[in-house]
């Protein structure tokens, strides 16, 4: 179709400057966006990205400082198996801090770690976790609580699982040291606690998981504090 033929629209390919209907700012293939158009596009893209972040990826995180927010990334089956292998033979209250779709909590319960519960802020993930528990036949046996992991009291926990970003490990180490009993074990997936010495570890690369016994962690912290110059 050529310019001037019935049905031809300005801005379609073939429209040349100077032809009837041409206006400055139009280019071959359609009208150029111009400054305002680009600004509108940028604002719309930003709003879409924000809506995805706030409504899908991180709903429920409004009160959590940005530096402490950890997005969802599920553990692989190998990571789950490694984490639970490091808790084999243990007993007592077991929690997953940021439990996602509940896979670690359900497997922990299956392994006999009871009570088993997860703390999670994302309501979509809480629904998924409850569905997973129901499908496994554990409805009402495991719990998923809509709580901020930074605000829960961990003083009665015996086994703590954390699959969280390395950036939050230092403040989390402070919380765990302050609250967990001596007999507690912390299992950390993907990233170790930088200043703690693990009692054992399992797996390689991204599948690696570390176990920390709080009594040992405290002993090491005390002896390094005594050995360091004041
Ligand atoms: C890396 S994912 C791990 C999910 C799950 N533990 C797993 O390994 O499959 C971290 C999870 O922690 C949750 N989370 C992050 N910050 C949280 C907070 N302050 N309180 C509760 N949950 C949180 C996120 O929504 C996300 O589901």
Quick rundown:
This protein is α/β, with parallel strands linked by helices and 230 residues long.
Q: In percent terms, what proportion of residues is strand? A: 5-15%
How many DSSP H or I helices?
Answer: 6
Classified in CATH, the superfamily of the largest domain is: Vaccinia Virus protein VP39
- The stretches of 5 or more residues where confidence is low (pLDDT under 50) are none
- What structural category do the secondary elements indicate? alpha/beta
> What is the strand arrangement across the widest sheet?
5-4-3-6-7-9-8
- Report the strand count: 9
Can you tell me the CATH architecture of the largest domain? 3-Layer(aba) Sandwich
- Overall helicity: 25-40%
Order of helices and strands: EEHHEHEHEEHEEEH
Average pLDDT rating: 88
Shape: elongated
Transmembrane segments: 38-58
Organism: Lepidothrix coronata (blue-crowned manakin)
Region (Disordered): 1-27
Keywords: Membrane, Methyltransferase, S-adenosyl-L-methionine, Transferase, Transmembrane, Transmembrane helix
Per-chain topology:
Blueprint: E1 26-27, E2 30-31, H1 34-57, H2 77-85, E3 94-97, H3 103-110, E4 116-119, H4 123-135, E5 143-145, E6 159-162, H5 169-179, E7 185-189, E8 200-202, E9 209-213, H6 214-227
Residues 64, 69-70, 72-75, 96, 98-100, 103-104, 119-122, 125, 148-150, 163-164 line the site of S-adenosylmethionine.
